[in-house]
Each structure stands twice: as structure tokens, then as C-alpha cells.
Amino acid sequence: MQTDHHSVRNLDLHEPLSQLAHEMRTPLNALGFSIQLLRAQAGVGMRTETLDIMDRQLELLKRLADDLFQAAQAQASAAPRQLCLVDLNEVTLHAIEACEPSLRARQHTLTLSFTPMLPLIEGDRIQLRQVIVNLLDNACKYTPPNGTISLATTLEDGFAVMRVSDNGCGIAQAELPHVFQAFRRATESVAAGDGLGMGLALVKKWVGAHQGSVDVSSAGPGHGSTFTVRLPLRRRRSRALSQTARDTPRASQGPADAREEVGHAS
Fold it and tell me: Does the predicted TM-score (pTM) go above 0.85?
């Protein structure tokens, strides 16, 4: 029996990979809970090096499970699935909530600068939220503990613009053209061994599917980096989408260029 290699290459692995990643999380979470119990039962002065090793390896497995899920997303079509009118500031706040545990664990300070009442964009709310999550996760991972990360939204030349900057390890000039390639990781970072390097590739894929662009700049190793996402504004709104926008509370009420500094250090 001959194998149709073309058919094999085009198998839709999105669903089985997503399911596998989801199933992996259950035993990993159980292991994490067990380690916490063992640590709580450890007596004062007891050596906990073994538990520390287990903790680190468990975090690595969790990261691999997350990357497997993102690899499954890369297999799926990039086309936005649920179009609606989106308030970029509101979606950004939801993404920050998802990233708060990581920010707090590494004791980073997150500084926010929102331009209020940004015109709405049309897009997939879930994909756009994940774009911001991936950029914040990248900044968190490649910034040493007690670092500073800033996130700003603004309006420029008919585009809603979001920038994520950090004072982390930075990126060598030779690496900048390759940052958004799948399975590519920063070579200068102490955290470069974490994950499969899918996050930024998905950012580029999803932003491109929204007819937007994403770029990165860095003055080099040790000088941090800035990722800039540009999304076109919605010019014509259907009656249904306009009604959705009117019924959706806006998260960007407030004075012009509202600024907030959120400390995540404990």
C-alpha cells in the first residue's frame, strides 16, 4: 500500500494537538499540587533541593505543554473566526489579567499608558487578546527579575497601535529579522531554553490575519526591546456590529493619555 505523502503533510493536526496539550495539563497540575503538599510538610531545616528540582522541571513541562497548544494553533487557519468590534484597551486589560501571575512571580513592574476612547477595530477578540498575552509573556520571560515592562496604546495614521517595551536582555541586530520565525529563540537570553519559540510566530500570523503589522526594535543585547503592533481601524460598521459596540462597555474611559503604574513585586 502506497502512502499519499501529500495527504499526510496536509493532515489537520489542530484538534488532536490541542486535545493532547489540554490533557497534559491535568497530570501536570496534579504534580504541582503534590509538590506544594510535600513542601508544606517539610520540617524546618529539611533539605528541599529535590523539591526545587521537581519544581523547575515541572515548570518546564508546563511551558512545553503551552507551546504544544500554540503549535496546534499555528496549524489552524489564521483567519479571524468571530469578528466583532473590539476596544483594544479593553482587550489589553483582559490580557494583563492573564499574565499577572507570571509578572508577579518574576517581580516585574508593569507600566500602562492608554489613549482613551480609541476608535474600535474589527477583529477576533480571542486572537487579539492572545497576541497581547504572547507579547507580555515574551517580555516577562526575557527580562531579568525586578525588571520594568511598559505597555501603551495610541492612535497613529489611522491605525490603533500597541507597544510592549522592556528593559530586558535585548536582541542582537543579526537576530532581529528572525524574531518572528517559528521555533526560533533569542540566543543571548538566560531564559532561551524555555519553550519551543512559537509565541512570536503566532503573533505575526494573527496580526497579519487582521491586516495589521508587527515589528520589533532593540538597541542590542542588554538594552531591552520594543514590539509594536499596528491594527487598521474599522471604517465601515455593519448595523449588527455597531449595535454590539454600543452594547459593550468601553474600558478606555478617562482623561487623555491615562497612565498607570502597576507594581507586581511582592
Answer: no
- E runs forming strands in 14-108: 83-86
Radius of gyration of the chain (CA): 20
- Burial of 216-248, coded b for 16+ CB within 10 Å and e otherwise, reads bebeebeebbbbbbbbeebeeeeeebeeebeee
Name the strand (E) or helix (H) holding 33: helix 14-41
CA angle 229, 126, 91 (to 5 degrees): 60
Q: Which residue has the cell 507597544?
A: 163
Lowest mean pLDDT among 49-53, 153-157, 173-177, 242-246: 242-246
| Cα separation, 249 vs 90, whole angstroms | 9
CA-CA distance, 188 to 262, in Å (whole number)? 28
Whole-number Cα distances in Å, 80 to 31, 131, 146, 198, 241: 36, 12, 36, 19, 15
The count of other CB atoms within 10 Å of the CB of residue 173 is 10
